[in-house]
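Tutorial, part two.
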Amino acid sequence: IKYINSIGLDEIYNHNYNLIKYLLNGLLNINGIIVYGDLSCENLTTCISINLQSIDCSELAYYLECDGIKTRSGLHCAPLAHKTIGTYPNGTVRLSISYFTTKQEVDYTLAVLNRIANNNILI
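Running the prediction step on this input gives:
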């Protein structure tokens, strides 16, 4: 709590909001990426669920992991939510950021996703 107070909740919120908005805008510019949820940037959290049209979410998570990008794929303990958004039974890949995430890391993630989306998968 001392650490959070030393930074300030407003600073943490602004960093996270700007970075997740940047990630969302980048994702929306990659062909084949499907982004789930509110895309208006009004109710963003630090987590975005995606899929790539051409491959299973677990395969996408594997390719990202091979490039050092940590994700979580599947139903995220919420099968009914996935039934609602039409991603059941496979689920989605979940990307998230934190106060410690950098713009360079987001740029790297977007570059890797773009490469995978263009079928240039290098492991």
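The chain has a mean pLDDT of 92. In part three we will examine how such features are distributed along the chain.
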